[in-house]
Amino acid sequence: MSSTKTIGIIGGGQLGQMMAISAIYMGHKVITLDPASDCPSSRVSEVIAAPYDDVDALRQLADCCDVLTYEFENVDADGLDAVIKDGQLPQGTELLRISQNRIFEKDFLSNKAQVTVAPYKVVTSSLDLEDIDLSKNYVLKTATGGYDGHGQKVITSAKDLEEANALANSAECVLEEFVNFDLEISVIVSGNGKDVTVFPVQENIHRNNILSKTIVPARISDRLADRAKAIAVKIAEQLNLSGTLCVEMFATADDIIVNEIAPRPHNSGHYSIEACDFSQFDTHILGVLGAPLPAINLHEPAVMLNVLGQHVEAAERYVTENPSAHLHMYGKLEAKHNRKMGHVTLFSNEPDNVVEFGKGIDF
Ligand code: AMP
């Protein structure tokens, strides 16, 4: 049997593109399904240009690939179930369904994986908000469709509660207690269906709810870092994980609280391309192919800066002045405001001195 596989990737954005690059290094062939024939992955793979929920296109992809994977979690799980053959989607559609809906996700995290999440309750209408104790703060999040802070309402006052009532009457939601965290962190873990491998803990700084800077290793105690990694491994084992998963968490003074999971490589793991001996994309491909997984070593402390549409010129200038910084551009044709166009990774022991692009200009 040939060790060269044809891998079908649903989604041809930067995550799909970087997965494809890893796969190609390993000798595999990649076919991408994306609505845009000029998507970032079109630079490195064949593209079937069709909407993600086009079942005929999904079937065409499934028919010409050995293995399927996806770059984002809002894939049509029913459509996939209708076309995949046994074992063709090692990540399975169950993990997709869990991460598509915060109610399923919270239930999985707290009851099945038994990791700590912020105290929460399911909200089906504003009636469920009637008796909340306003001496505490909360975040109300829609169960589906939210991303980068959309579909969320922080509640710290009676006035916020009024707006939250409207959100609660428009969609099913989860009400979480507000966590007074010190840092936001994440851990990348990859599995091959049997074993898992885990990356160092990442510290994440967001601006306007969009990741701006990742610092590795995160500036937390060794005890908390070990705990964060153990939590990520526990979740991966509970899932019999295949491929890469990112666990986003809050670090408080003495605890780690899980916020959410993303069943794919994640923006906060991009540093691993240069800073680790295997990247999150390499282990994703190895994992979905069921190959043995390497232990991960961090070569040196690293910082990753996101390059949004409004930062492209600043980033290009930065790397001409700092040629040892690694600039990645995804090949997106239009540099829209807040669109992720690329990222820069550099090695640094002084992460506070690595200034985010656009700081002081557009935050
Ligand atoms: P999410 O969509 O769940 O990743 O939330 C977006 C951002 O909102 C997170 O990165 C946090 O900065 C903030 N956030 C979400 N949930 C909470 C919470 N329970 N307590 C405090 N901040 C939160």
Summarize the structure.
By secondary structure, this protein is α+β, with helices and mostly antiparallel strands.
Describe the structure.
- The chain is α+β, with helices and mostly antiparallel strands and 363 residues long.
- Helix content is 28%, strand content 27%.
- The chain folds into three domains: 6-89, Rossmann fold (3-Layer(aba) Sandwich), CATH 3.40.50; 119-177, 2-Layer Sandwich (Dna Ligase, domain 1), CATH 3.30.1490; 183-353, ATP-grasp fold, B domain (D-amino Acid Aminotransferase, Chain A, domain 1, 2-Layer Sandwich).
- It contains ten helices and 17 strands.
- The strands form three sheets. Strands 9, 10, 11, 12, 13, 14, 15, 16 and 17 form a nine-stranded antiparallel beta sheet that branches. A four-stranded parallel beta sheet has the order 3-2-1-4, with helices on both faces.
- Strand 1, helix 1 and strand 2 form a beta-alpha-beta unit.
- The longest helix is centred in the middle third of the chain and has 18 residues, at 222-239.
- The radius of gyration is 20 Å and the shape is globular.
- The model has no long low-confidence stretch (mean pLDDT 95).
- It binds adenosine monophosphate.
- Adenosine monophosphate binds next to strand 14.
